[in-house]
């Protein structure tokens, strides 16, 4: 079993509110579903817990919110059906579908389907202001850098980015809360975040200590977009209290995913709940500003679940037939 290979994840079960009566075919629907997120303190956990509970509340189901290692592990759990839903990033998704996941090498994860667009994941770094580090080029040789949980999007790509900048470093892993504590205690020097902004852990750090939000230079952006499946991104001014100016970054799109065997009518209704509930989603996390219909076309990697595709096509999307799971 994938979960036994990757380690048992903690699960928080949250009860749903009674659903409103709906004239929908519920044949084959589960009475509950599980949703893979990531470590506590990161955007995936906050965002995923929120939309999982929104779906459960609106459809009258129970949901289990699962703490995982993030994008790579979610692909594995959703592929096997050990999680019904989850979240991933398109770079790790592409590698996992091709059988190049470092967690389960050789397993082509082709039973994962796209659900809906989430947000872009910017790559950016944080250091204590007392360190004097204000740019990536100022990270000293041998610096201890935390990249999030092993196998996460940040852990997959950010170390390679730092290596491409010819900066020798010590690689550290941990959940975001633990890495934040280590940064404050001087046990690590930098955290390399790959998460939707604002990252909850950065906001917590800012509330208790002075930090520097480290951006990419234009030249560093150009190198990253040439080497990795990322695009230029600008973190808006005041996203973080300690940053009054915009910050250059690079980013990768995140998509919600579902097991392809879930009933079409269930996934259709779950898609409708999220995509028509953007105001509720924005209350969950500000990153949901891009969880909107118009961003359906950002997915060029994961085949769409027929239920999700039906909702998007009914609302004007032109999803190619070959991009819909048969």
UniProtKB/TrEMBL annotation:
<protein>
    <submittedName>
        <fullName>NMT1-like family protein</fullName>
    </submittedName>
</protein>
<keyword id="KW-0732">Signal</keyword>
<feature type="signal peptide">
    <location>
        <begin position="1"/>
        <end position="21"/>
    </location>
</feature>
<dbReference type="InterPro" id="IPR011852">
    <property type="entry name" value="TRAP_TAXI"/>
</dbReference>
<dbReference type="Pfam" id="PF16868">
    <property type="entry name" value="NMT1_3"/>
</dbReference>
